[in-house]
Design brief:
heterotrimer, A mainly alpha (692), B alpha/beta (256), C alpha/beta (321), A: 692 residues, mainly alpha, 5-stranded parallel sheet, 4-stranded parallel sheet, B: 256 residues, alpha/beta, 6 helices, globular
Chain lengths: 692, 256, 321
């Protein structure tokens, strides 16, 4: 055995050994976590791997670096044989990998892709060094740059080595199959064969060395995703995003106070985070200047898991060092993560939607909140809202008997579905029922239903807050209590389907409510649940609701988080808007990229804290920049937040905020209201302002 | 430090109050009751003292109907014993004199260093439960307390006066304190813990027979306040209101 | 003192508090109606100098002792019991305050008298004395008799004008020696001063007072600008102080300060009784509240239901013209 073979062998053993050891360490940490599973639906899961790992689909949502990453990913996959060839060559000098090293067309593909990878890497370095996107803030930049340099080096040395092989006629395939390498080798042709051999040797050693070093570094940081991503995507959550996992209630604990109270499946998520920051970029809390970054949250959890895992494994007999003790005494929320950051989340799901590796951010935040509330650590204003929800079933501090007071302003009576059957049960929701500013909109909704001849009824006083945000705030027990009360009330009524005003209500009724008839059947499976925009769409298309006058004018539409991103209802509201005659201009961030208004996740019940720019203000500016006179919304909280934002952003007179139902009411009511329609009015306003 | 907390259930003012035509008094038929807000503060203060000094917290409440949930919540917050006092006519709205006499009987031989209760309740008419009980037990009473410091067997209560002024009053021996505000807002305890308490804790019931009470106050009639002199409302949109107000203020010579 | 109307003077740090005058005004009427005398009972140390302010009473009884210099619940209770055991008045009136409410029940229990609290007005008819109290957060009025031979009451402000309790006459003065105070179980230690260095809202002619309706701390700036334009100062109700948007020195209300400004602008304040206690007699009160049923409109002379956050800057502008 020659010296070089020994060196390669030793290097290989050391590298693989170290890599293996570091992987094993992290596996041990995963074992600290709670159990997870069972995992079914394997064909769907495998399909997911093909689409999301093979196809890298989510990465293309940021096109530039997305394409670069696809190139690098597939480059590595296709170039794996060349790395294998290099390693085995080191041990058995004359070895040639059958087929993979000798098949011409494959070599051509590899050759071109090596060039593509080099370009991609250089582009990546350019983005990091010159463009410096916001989303990399807080990521381990050094590691990112280092790895890009590694990959560049691996490509360069490969091409150089192969080029020289071509020069010396020692290549495994004809030069026609390796044009790029040939071009790389061109400037070296004039050197003596001995020199070229030497250069080629050096390239080979560097190539192998970097690969082996890279391997050992893989488990340490963000590049662990290279190992874990396929498993993570394979095991991804197949439940609807709007369905949270229930609280784990063993040993009196609820939620996660210590990191071991997460499941190993959640921990695997953290090991798959590549710190790309796409989540951070779309986070409304982060954008507003709040101390929450979904990316930094995951990185923090990962780092703490590692340090705590290491500390716990320190031999107790030998005695734990002071620094060990210090780590074990760290409070997960308090020392590792700030309380503010945990409460800042609006649960809009933009982060989860954006993540190419299907890392979940919202669920761990809810788990942390569950733990915090159990320890009585919460925003004081939140406590007031929760007390009110527990006592009165609404967050307004008003009596449950006042829930249907808004109906007194109507000139017709609405059915009490507790007493009479109705085809459609209208679950109104807290904000639409109790907020004085929204009474007229709720009444308009009733009018439209009446005009369409809908057979509908209300639960009146029996309705309670559906609990969507109560759950997301971490008060699982209160969610269960409210759900139980609502389900009991529902089960006493006769109806065929449910329609909701509020997307939050829609989400939880559809995805999270389970009937108590002994069969654990989900409410959404038993009875169709619609958002009012879906119902309007159905009524208009079916001819039951007739548009009597078209509303002229350009509007834009904001997709509510819990209707759009969570439940994929994008087109129904748009069809309704077009049906009433509006010309829809899309905002840059639309559909599943819509920016949350900031009220969700219980934020509307909490102190605002310091903000640079409220998400609602950023959004209203986005809308106003389109030059339309009206922002159309389909959620009572959106209506509240954006109307406020118009004032605080100083856009009064520039843009109006109206609920879709108001436009439909105007377009369909028997007696025409005011002379000009709302939209035309604002159009006139907008154009006069731009003229003046 | 062993503490007894008294909780009185009072009308929930979120609802509209009505006069019973027959009796001329408050119609209690559809009245919703809730724990008196300041009594919740008293409970919070008691738990804070228990967390600091150890000891037991005992909660006493008259069974005015539907009090169980609040008592289980007290357990979830940290109370050690919760005692529901039962008797005839408790749901009819008793005067504080009678309540104090009943509580006197119920306290019986419960060991305590302090009795804490809200300094007032929203429906007080004839005195305050804490002060009356103190007098009945022959104990000193300090009201409007916003902080309790215990050291070396002595208690120093911080008493709140108007205008942000406070005084420290030292109290010797067992006493009754009327709480105006706990050191922290009453904690929110998650529903699952209350449910847990409902399963694992037990509410003790204590029946109290007729107590003789002297000097009860009779209420001859009740009425809803008339909005007699209602403000003159200024109409119009915001611009118009602003203009009218400015004119009004100048006319009245306020801006001299 | 037998059969007399007795007002227990409310003194804090050597000052006679306004509620005393309310009680004296009420007491004057009752004493006249019952054809008896009005006595003011003054407890403390060096209190003789305060007698001049109690002209509305026919007689002032002073009990002085070093241990009574500052309010001490158990000590004062001992004194009152000793005094009333000697002579039982027809009515004993305490202010419904931190001091009065500490004492009323103890006196009533020990002397076997009934006690009625939170009384606002009294009336006489067929030889009986009736009182009217506001209860249940101001949502309910309760009326009832004050039985003979003796009865204790606590009095809330607002039923009588303080001026009617301030007469420039000279009452007769009697001194009574304090009973033995060695069995007293409470002891005054010290005062804790309120945070200083801020405006004294009781001395302001114009107050722009903000409540929960202001929604968040940032909107305070609108109130500040309006106050500046009016030549006044910003004050607030309890929710605003609890959130720490304003210091406690700006609190108007039962636990805060009692103010008597020329102009009181109540912005986003509902008008809870605890707050209204702090401004029983403003010359001109304007209220802005989006809820047309807010109790504040029963007290203010003028009101509007428009959005305060929009109104404030517009009003400020209009005032500058």
């Amino acid at each position: 055995m020659s010296l070089s073979t020994v060196v390669v062998l030793l290097g290989l053993v050391a590298s693989v050994g170290l890599f293996g050891y570091r992987c094993w360490q992290r596996m041990q940490h995963l074992r600290l976590g709670r159990p997870a599973g069972p995992f079914g639906q394997w064909s769907k899961r495998l399909q997911g791997v093909l689409v999301f790992v093979g196809g890298q689909t989510r990465l293309l949502r940021v096109p530039g670096t997305g394409i670069a990453h696809i190139v690098i990913f597939w480059g590595f996959v296709l170039l794996l044989p060349t790395i294998l060839q290099a390693i085995i060559e080191g041990l058995f000098p004359d070895f040639v990998l059958p087929f993979f090293a000798t098949f011409g067309p494959l070599s051509l593909v590899q050759d071109i892709i090596a060039l593509a990878v080099t370009v991609a890497v250089l582009y990546g370095l350019y983005v990091r060094a010159v463009v410096r996107p916001e989303r990399y803030k807080g990521s381990h930049q050094f590691e990112g740059n280092l790895v890009l340099c590694f990959i560049f080096t691996i490509m360069a040395t490969l091409l150089c080595h192969t080029g020289i092989r071509q020069n010396l006629g020692e290549a495994h395939v004809a030069v026609a199959w390796q044009p790029v390498a040939a071009v790389v080798g061109l400037p070296l042709r004039d050197l003596s064969p001995e020199t070229q051999e030497a250069v080629s040797e050096v390239c080979w050693w560097i190539h192998l060395g970097v690969v082996l070093v890279f391997l050992t570094l893989l488990p340490l940081g963000k590049h662990f995703h290279v190992v874990t991503s396929i498993i993570n995507v394979l095991l991804r959550n197949l439940e609807p995003p709007g369905r949270l996992m229930p609280a784990r209630r063993d040993e009196g604990a609820e939620g996660a106070e210590r990191i071991e109270q997460f499941s190993w499946w959640q921990m695997l998520d953290w090991y798959s985070c590549s710190e790309c920051g796409r989540c951070q970029d779309v986070c409304p809390a982060y954008g507003s200047g709040a101390p929450l970054s979904p990316k930094l949250l995951i990185m923090g959890l990962r780092a703490h898991l590692h340090e705590r895992g290491q500390a716990l494994r320190a031999n107790p007999e030998v005695g734990r060092s002071a620094s060990c003790e210090a780590i074990l005494n760290k409070r997960l929320v308090g020392d590792v993560l700030s309380e503010e950051s945990v409460w800042a989340c609006t649960t809009c799901n933009a982060c989860d939607r954006e993540c190419p590796l299907f890392v979940e951010h919202v669920q761990p935040i809810v788990d942390l909140r569950r733990g915090l509330l159990l320890q009585q650590r919460g925003d004081k204003t939140l406590a007031t809202a929760l007390e009110s929800l527990r006592r009165y079933g609404n967050s307004f501090g008003k009596s449950d008997k006042q829930r249907a007071k808004w109906t007194t302003g109507l000139d017709f009576k609405i059915k009490d579905v507790r007493k009479q059957p109705a085809q459609t049960l209208w679950f109104v929701g807290d904000y639409a029922s109790y907020s004085p500013a929204l009474t007229q909109v709720t009444q308009a909704t009733a009018r439209v239903f009446q005009t369409a001849g809908l057979d509908f009824g209300l639960l009146f006083d029996a309705e309670r807050n559906a609990g969507n945000d109560v759950r997301r705030v971490g008060e699982e027990g209160l969610f269960e209590l409210l759900a139980q009360k609502n389900i009991t009330a529902l089960q006493k009524c006769q109806f065929e389907r449910i329609v909701t005003t509020d997307p939050h209500t829609y989400n939880t009724l559809k995805n999270e409510y389970v009937l108590t008839n002994g069969q654990s059947q989900s409410l959404g499976a038993k009875v169709p649940i619609l958002h009012y925009t879906e119902l309007l769409d159905e009524l208009i298309r079916g001819g039951r609701l007739k548009v009597l006058r078209k509303l002229d004018g350009a509007v834009t539409y904001h997709d509510p988080c819990y209707l759009g991103r969570y439940n994929e209802v994008y087109e129904a509201p748009r069809r309704v808007l077009r049906a009433v005659g509006c010309r829809l201009v899309e905002m840059p961030r639309n559909r599943d990229r819509a920016l949350c208004c900031g009220a969700g996740g219980g934020r509307i019940w909490m102190d605002e804290g310091k903000v640079k720019e409220r998400p609602a203000e950023s959004r209203i500016r986005e809308a106003a920049a389109l030059g339309v006179g009206c922002l159309v919304v389909a959620c009572p909280k959106d209506l509240t937040m954006y109307r406020d934002a118009v004032k605080t952003a100083g856009l009064e007179g520039r843009i109006m905020v109206r609920d879709l139902i108001e436009l439909v009411d105007e377009a369909t009511r028997a007696n025409a209201g005011s002379a000009a329609t709302a939209v035309a009015k604002t159009e006139a306003m907008a154009s006069s302002l731009s003229a003046g | 430090m062993d503490i007894v907390v008294l909780i009185k259930f009072v009308p929930d003012l979120v609802e509209d109050l009505e006069i019973d035509a027959a009796t001329g008094l408050l119609d209690r038929n559809f009245l919703r009751l809730m724990p008196n807000e300041l009594d919740e503060h008293a409970l919070e203060q008691a738990i804070i003292l228990k967390e600091r000094h150890g000891g037991r917290v005992t909660v006493l409440a008259l069974d005015t109907g539907d009090v169980d949930e609040a008592l289980y919540t007290a357990v979830a917050k940290g109370a050690d014993r919760v005692i529901k006092i039962t008797g005839d006519g408790f749901d009819q709205g008793l005067g504080n004199r009678r309540i104090a006499a009943i509580l006197r009987r119920a306290v019986g031989d419960v060991r305590f260093d302090l009795i804490l209760t809200g300094t007032q309740a929203v429906d007080d008419l004839d005195g305050f439960v804490g002060a009356l009980l103190a007098a009945d037990l022959g104990l000193p009473y300090v009201g409007y307390v916003t902080q309790v410091v215990a050291a070396d067997g002595r208690v120093v209560a911080r008493k709140e006066y108007p205008g942000g002024l406070n005084a420290e009053i030292e109290v010797n021996g067992p006493a009754v304190l009327g709480i105006q505000a706990a050191e922290r807002a009453p904690r929110y305890v998650v529903t699952s813990k209350v449910m847990e308490a409902m399963k694992s804790a037990k509410i003790e019931e204590l029946a109290v027979d007729e107590v003789s009470v002297e000097n009860e106050l009779a209420v001859s009639s009740m009425a809803l306040p008339e909005s007699g002199t209602h403000a003159e409302m200024i109409e119009g949109n915001v611009q118009q209101v602003a203009q009218k107000l400015a004119v009004l203020l100048k006319e009245r010579g306020v801006l001299a | 003192m037998c059969g007399e109307v007795c007002v227990v003077v409310e003194v804090l740090r050597g000052e006679v508090k306004d509620i005393t005058y309310t009680m004296l005004a009420a007491g004057r009427q009752l004493a006249a109606g019952l054809k008896t005398k009005l006595t003011a009972l003054l407890i403390g140390r060096d209190v003789q100098k305060l007698v001049a302010q109690l002209g509305a009473a026919d007689r002032v009884v002073c009990v002085e002792h070093a241990d009574l210099a500052e309010f001490n619940p158990d000590a004062y209770l001992h004194v009152l019991i000793a005094v009333f055991e000697q002579h039982a008045p027809r009515l004993v009136m305490f202010g419904h305050t931190a001091t009065g409410t500490d004492l009323a029940c103890g006196v009533a229990h020990r002397l076997h008298w009934p006690v009625a609290t939170a009384c606002r007005t009294f009336s006489l008819g067929n030889g009986t004395v009736q009182c009217s109290s506001l209860t249940c957060g101001g949502k309910l009025i309760a009326n009832g008799p004050l039985p003979e031979p003796s009865c204790v009451v606590t009095v809330m402000p607002g039923g009588y004008k303080a001026e009617d309790g301030q007469l420039h006459k000279t009452p007769t003065v009697e001194t009574v020696s304090a009973p033995g105070l060695d069995q007293v179980r409470t002891r005054f230690k010290q005062y804790l001063e309120p945070p200083a260095g801020d405006v004294d809202i009781t001395k302001q002619r114009i107050l722009v007072s903000v409540g929960r309706g202001i929604q968040n701390k940032d909107n305070l700036a609108l109130a500040e600008k309006l106050a500046a334009a009016l030549g006044g100062v910003v004050s607030g109700s309890r929710p605003v102080i609890d959130q720490a948007w304003l210091p406690t020195t700006r609190l108007v209300g039962k636990s805060g300060k009692q103010v008597k400004p020329k102009l009181y602008l109540a912005i986003g304040i509902s008008g809870a009784p605890e707050h209204l206690e702090g401004v029983p007699e403003a010359e001109l009160m304007l209220a802005i509240n989006t809820d047309p049923k807010a109790p504040i409109f029963d007290v203010a002379q003028y009101g509007a239901t428009c959005n305060a956050l929009e109104l404030m800057p517009l009003l400020t502008e209009n005032l500058k013209k």
